[in-house]
Amino acid sequence: xxxxxxxxxxxxxxxxxxxxxxxxxxxxxxxxxxxxxxxxxxxxxxxxxxxxxxxxxxxxxxxxxxxxxxxxxxxxxxxxxxxxxxxxxxxxxxxxxxxxxxxxxxxxxxxxxxxxxxxxxxxxxxxxxxxxxxxxxxxxxxxxxxxxxxxxxxxxxxxxxxxxxxxxxxxxxxxxxxxxxxxxxxxxxxxxxxxxxxxxxxxxxxxxxxxxxxxxxxxxxxxxxxxxxxxxxxxxxxxxxxxxxxxxxxxxxxxxxxxxxxxxxxxxxxxxxxxxxxxxxxxxxxxxxxxxxxxxxxxxxxxxxxxxxxxxxxxxxxxxxxxxxxxxxxxxxxxxxxxxxxxxxxxxxxxxxxxxxxxxxxxxxxxxx
Length: 369
Known about the structure:
Blueprint: E1 3-8, H1 10-15, H2 25-29, H3 51-56, E2 59-66, H4 83-102, E3 106-108, H5 112-124, E4 133-140, H6 151-156, E5 161-163, H7 188-198, E6 201-203, H8 209-218, E7 223-224, H9 242-250, E8 255-257, H10 289-303, E9 309-311, H11 336-343, H12 348-366
Parallel strand pairs: 1-2, 2-4, 3-4, 4-5, 5-6, 6-7, 8-9
Helix pairs in contact: 5-12, 10-11
């Protein structure tokens, strides 16, 4: 069955962790011994995705991200000192996606027409080995937008989805690790106004509860949650309460469930300080795809149907294989989600919605003409 992944911060793996993601996964996982890495937070051996592996997994498209955050006092996350440097980094990540498109490894899906044509290509195919993988380009945390009017430049360069925050406080909003009460910052209002003029899609992931409520009051355009689990099941500020999930559903949005075990472990996590490795707290086998599907099912129960839940893997952004559910080794194993849904009595039409059709309908509606 086809899959659309609602969250893959792919370019970070290439530019920050020095992985050539056009390689077969086994080659990445067994990179040359002694090769000096520019930056490394976890081993290449834990990588879950590459373009050949995505084709094996039948991942027709993904919401791929550019991610560059300013590190501010009091928050352990962020990579750059200034927004200017964050802008340059994210432009480099965008250039990586464009290069993959020029090599026919990928197809940037910036309009309805291109998106529909690409999905038809995959839907009609029997073998995916030579097909490009579709990329909808999003931005995780808006620090790379140096001022609200610069969003017009980003739109012209193919950006279609923006979340205002990531970890800590961005130039626009409070995000994960700042609690639930932090508000939008003054620059958020003109940015959201410009996004609405353009038809840019707002991603409410990684954003404090109060900031999301303010966003939804100010912004009348399309809304999604690219990788967001349910606080009713897993305590902690990184998950969202039913009130916000319902608001996204009521706006016609889609909620992608994340593969991050810290967002699935029912013991919860205090996100305010340094986040420990999950294996230091619980055995990997204790978080499974049953826990993952619990979040999908909860969204379905809130909606009263299967039309707003989806996969939002945070693929390789969540720490790779050791920090994914027990049954997941590579993205090929995302197909196992369908098996869990079958065992819970879901109909095939509902499973297709969750695996790809909800994202397909959303982007076919909201991408520009």
